[in-house]
Each structure stands twice: as C-alpha cells, then as structure tokens.
Write a structure and sequence with these properties.
Helices cover 60% and strands 0% of the residues. It contains three helices and no strands.
C-alpha cells in the first residue's frame, strides 16, 4: 500500500497505520485458513482418484462449499481494504478500480455463488 497523505494523519505508508495493518492481517489470516482447508481436501480427493476411486458426493459438495467460502473471504478482504485506497480508487482509469470491478464481476459467476 503506497505512501500517501492519508486520513489517519501523517504521511507514513498506509501499511504502517494500525487500522490498515490489522485489516490486512485479518484478511490474510482468513484467506490462509480457507486456502489451507481447500487444498487439504483437494489433495486428499486427488489421492483417492489417483488410487482409482471416484469422487463421492460428500467430498464434491465440501469442495464446492470451500470454494464458495474462499470467494466470500476474498470478497470480504477486497471490500475491507478497498476504502483505504482513497478516492483515486474510484476513478475508472486506475488499475485498482479495474481490479476491483473485474474481481466483483468474476466472483459473481454461478459456480461461485451459494446454491439454494
């Protein structure tokens, strides 16, 4: 996160502002948690398939649920951190705005939305 004048006072990099650091650390911890659970299930399922088994309904449903949880955690992280980027992030010609729009568009794909 770039060094800019910010609403928290000084000209220090935003990453050094406690509120920003706490938000980033929380988002990272949440993403690391769900990523770890997703890949643990994926590795176990892959090992079963490599041994000749078919993917059962239970693990397939768990995989989908974890993928949706990962998307939700990602969306929460993006939406929590985006406001710290300031008004420049709202300009349509900025990279951060394009990334924010692309992320929100892609994360609404039918495969990544909760069913039911």
């Amino acid at each position: 996160i770039a060094r800019r004048r910010n609403r928290f006072g000084g000209g220090e990099p935003l990453i050094e502002v406690h509120a920003v650091r706490a938000a980033l650390d929380g988002a990272r911890a949440s993403l690391d948690d769900v990523r770890g659970r997703f890949y643990a299930l994926l590795d176990a399922t892959w090992a079963d398939v490599a041994a000749g088994a078919e993917v059962a309904d239970g693990p397939a449903a768990q995989m989908q649920a974890l993928a949706q949880e990962w998307v939700a955690a990602s969306r929460h992280a993006v939406d929590t951190l985006y406001p710290y980027c300031g008004l420049v992030a709202a300009r349509a010609d900025t990279d951060i705005n394009r990334v924010w729009r692309d992320f929100h568009t892609a994360s609404q794909h039918a495969l990544l939305m909760p069913q039911g």
